[in-house]
Amino acid sequence: MAPPPNNKVGRARVRESVRTAYREAILEAAERVISRDGFTGVKMADIAAEAGVAAGTVYNYFKNKEAVLESIKLRGFEQIHQQMLAARALEDPLERIRSQVRGVFEYVEGRGALFTIYMQHGGVHEWIQQRIHKKGRGANQEVFARFDQLTLATLEEAVARGQVREDIALEDLAEMLGGLIDALMFTWFRQGCPPNLSEKSDLLFDMFLHGAHAR
Amino acid sequence: MAPPPNNKVGRARVRESVRTAYREAILEAAERVISRDGFTGVKMADIAAEAGVAAGTVYNYFKNKEAVLESIKLRGFEQIHQQMLAARALEDPLERIRSQVRGVFEYVEGRGALFTIYMQHGGVHEWIQQRIHKKGRGANQEVFARFDQLTLATLEEAVARGQVREDIALEDLAEMLGGLIDALMFTWFRQGCPPNLSEKSDLLFDMFLHGAHAR
Amino acid sequence: MAPPPNNKVGRARVRESVRTAYREAILEAAERVISRDGFTGVKMADIAAEAGVAAGTVYNYFKNKEAVLESIKLRGFEQIHQQMLAARALEDPLERIRSQVRGVFEYVEGRGALFTIYMQHGGVHEWIQQRIHKKGRGANQEVFARFDQLTLATLEEAVARGQVREDIALEDLAEMLGGLIDALMFTWFRQGCPPNLSEKSDLLFDMFLHGAHAR
Amino acid sequence: MAPPPNNKVGRARVRESVRTAYREAILEAAERVISRDGFTGVKMADIAAEAGVAAGTVYNYFKNKEAVLESIKLRGFEQIHQQMLAARALEDPLERIRSQVRGVFEYVEGRGALFTIYMQHGGVHEWIQQRIHKKGRGANQEVFARFDQLTLATLEEAVARGQVREDIALEDLAEMLGGLIDALMFTWFRQGCPPNLSEKSDLLFDMFLHGAHAR
DNA sequence: TATGAATGAGATTTCATTCAT
DNA sequence: TATGAATGAAATCTCATTCAT
Questions:
Q1: D89 and D131 in one domain?
Q2: How do residues D80-107 score in pLDDT, each as one tens digit?
């Protein structure tokens, strides 16, 4: 057995890692509960039970219920963002986009719950309200901005290479692409999360590039 | 004072119209409340207050809270469906689609609340759960089926006329179209319901037909 | 039997009186609970039970626990003030003071609970904090100001008639008198509220006028 | 490094002094917290934080929350008592009283928190309840008894010397004096602890001896 | 039938105390 | 022995629903 860490630094490090583990366990549990019971009625008690901790413990890690949900959302966005960044290495911008789309779909397919939150909570109404009332909480805004930037930059490169139409504003293109992604996820969700979301990514990409018109 | 209507039929008719008026007032009020405060926290008391009736009165017209929300949703879908049917007269299927899209957008633009509900309540998770657990309530299912049918029929006609690619399954096309519509609404909603949704419909239609690829 | 009030005004009046009755019943109950169990641990559930209403009902009349306690305090101050005003008719200012003192003592003797609150809650610390932090809630401040005025005016008259020393500032005299009253109540309270408080009022008055010095 | 004390006695002494230091630090911290946040809502966590120790540590020195508060109160009373004893040397009983009053005021002026506790906790209601229910805890009773004795003895001496009225019972005189002291403190507290309490002691003494009556 | 207050089950949150390290 | 997080009982508060008028 290794000697127990007797110094303060060691103990602090251990404590920190335990804290992180608890935090994560609670968030994971919350996602599972939401996946199972829906978002509208999540109960703190259920989250605690699912995480295997006492009700009060959740409050050692999160100020209140809202903070838990907010954290889930941010963590999800963060993870999607990482997923998208994984495509950076690809040289061809179109291929990069295709890969990003696939990455997002793969991530979402594994975590339907996140999407529920994305759409039902801050993801949609509350978040909108924030925008409207200008109280925009930094973290959210920033994440969305990063999404937008990533897409815009890639599209710009594609236009520069003559791969993509110039007669539509970059912003509109980005919106259509983002919208298509949302759309597919949305429809997939509406259909009860069948296990085929990521297969749709090539179809989406084809439609994005060529449209439905007969050749 | 005017003499009261003495025949039973007349009295029944008056009563019925009063009932309908109350019902509608409550539904309208509920939509306003949801638009304003978000869906997650709608309170029966708020709905009643907004409608200008007592809390108890709502229960004379709806079994419970769920019934109110369900009614809003159905009424909204119904109205969108009517909007789409208005395009039936157009001879060219592509024009019909363009018109339908515009119609839906115009309707949604005027009633963001509906969309909130569409996505946040039955429209999304709960409704999905129902599908999964096979409790599918008839009304919902039927409405969605009618949407699908309408779109499928129109697309089929367009394919038959050689206006649309044949290499993609009709169902996938319909899904992409429906998805694009959802997508635009979704993005529009995410941006705080700016007053330009219906303008986007031509852009959407163009993208649907021709895609983003450079010519 | 009188005909039931069928008009809106009548019904509103009835309702109003019922509301007032409930409010009073809750406040009375709260005082009883505090007398019995002490102030520190008052529980909303106990108050509701003592008042014979459901827990939730209390919240139809008071925003929260703090509001209940605040109301008790204000009501008590108000009632003491009324008690003091009853002495206005007396012509001799010294007799008026004697009567006021007796009145206050009689009131307090019947309601030990009020005094607890007066000293333990807003009456003492919280209220002080308010003064210090300048957030003085109007109602409290005003009540105390009225007490002070009443006493000052009476003392001024007594000085004018040559009944009271001129070599001590009016404010100091008022403070000593008020302090003596507080003091006796305080001591009485400390001794477990024995049933002799109001008898002390003449003693107090004598001491206030002549002091302890041997003649 | 200095050699560690190797004898048992020395080590025990060091340990004892460390324990005392912790105990005192916790009590001081608790007084500060109460002064700042009021008595009603003191939290063990706040006390610990203010003392710079962990929450659990407090329980190594005090059985529970009640024990902490009780200790503060006793310590305060004890210190006031010491203050009063300092006047014993004075030969003239009236001067002794004047000095005692000043001593008490000086002490209280420096530690408003004690007074809060004196009035809000055991000092007032709870403590009364104990008296009433005959559970009287020895320590409290004894402290108050000592106060009373001290005052009674001094007044008795003053009466014997013909300095104080004989027509009022010693007990009543003591009560009036004690009451006046309480009164001034009370008023001072009610006014937000202005920095002039000890100046009032001569005024109080004058009033106690001569009263408010015009000469 | 409209009213609006009462109800009380149930949710969130707090915090004194315990306990493993 | 100090630490500081876990615990969970208990308190506060909310709000859908009921019900007497």
A1: yes
A2: 778 878 888 899 999 998 888 888 888 8
Q: Are residues D99 and D190 in the same domain?
A: yes
Residues D112 and D25 placed together within one structural domain of the fold: no
In the structure, how far is the CA atom of residue C144 from the C1' atom of nucleotide E13, in angstroms? 36
In D98-205, the DSSP E strands lie at none
B86-130 pLDDT per residue, tens: 888 899 999 998 888 888 888 877 776 666 666 554 343 343 344
Identity of the residue in B120, B163, B209 whose CB atom sits nearest the CB atom of A124: B120
Residue A141 in any domain: the answer is yes
The shortest CB-CB distance from C182 to any of D178, D186, D212 is to: D186
Query: What is the rounded CA–CA span in Å between residue C39 and residue D123?
Result: 13
Shared-domain flag, residues A54 and A99? no
**Tokens standing for A144?**
């969305």
- The set of chains that have 3 or more CB pairs under 8 A with A is B
- pLDDT tens for C123-173 read 434 443 443 343 444 555 565 666 677 788 899 999 999 999 888 888 878
CATH code: domain of residue C100? 1.10.357.10
Q: Is C214–D176 a contact, with Cβ atoms under 8 angstroms apart?
A: no
Minimum-distance residue to E2 (CA–C1'): B57
- Specify whether A79 is located in the same domain as A178: yes
Give me the residues of B, 21-80, that contact A with CB < 8 A: 38-40
The minimal CB distance from A207 to the residues B127, B203, B211 is found for B211
B187-202 burial, b for 16+ CB within 10 Å, e for fewer?
Answer: bbbbeebeeebbebbe
Residues in chain B within 8 Å Cβ distance of A125? 38-40, 116, 120
Give the domain range for residue C16.
1-62
Q: Is residue D215 domain-resident?
A: no
Q: Is the pLDDT of residue D33 over 80?
A: yes
Residues B140 and B30: their CA atoms lie apart, in Å, by 19
Q: Which nt is closest to the CA of D59, judged by C1'? A: E17
Q: What is the CATH number of the domain that holds B51?
A: 1.10.10.60
- Identify the three-state secondary structure at position C133: coil
Point out the domain boundary residue: B42, B62, B82.
B62
Residue pair C50/C68 in contact (Cβ under 8 Å)? The answer is: no
Structurally, chain A folds into a number of domains equal to 2
C215 assigned to some structural domain: no
Domain boundary among D22, D47, D62: D62
Residues of C in contact with D215 (CB under 8 A): 165
Residue with tokens 């002094």: D17
Residue D129: pLDDT band (50, 70, 90) is: very low
Predicted local confidence at residue B22, as pLDDT: 95
C91 and C191 in a single domain? The answer is yes
Span A100-111, average pLDDT: 82
| C28 class by beta-carbon count within 10 Å (0-12 exposed, 13-18 middle, 19+ buried) | middle
Q: Would an 8 Å CB–CB cutoff place A120 in contact with chain B?
A: yes
Q: Is C115 within a domain?
A: yes
Residue C61 to residue C48: CA distance in whole angstroms:
11
**Same domain membership, residue C55 and residue C141:** no
Residue whose Cα is closest to the C1' of F19? B56
Q: Which of A125, A128, A164, A205 to mutate to test the interface with B (most CBs of B within 10 A)?
A: A125
| Type of residue found at B114 | L
For B193, which residue in chain A has the nearest alpha carbon? A128
Confirm or reject contact between A179 and chain B (CB < 8 A): yes
Rounded mean pLDDT, A21-35: 93
Mark whether B197 and B153 lie in a shared domain: yes
Protein-proximal nucleotides of chain E (any atom < 7 Å from a CB): 1-21
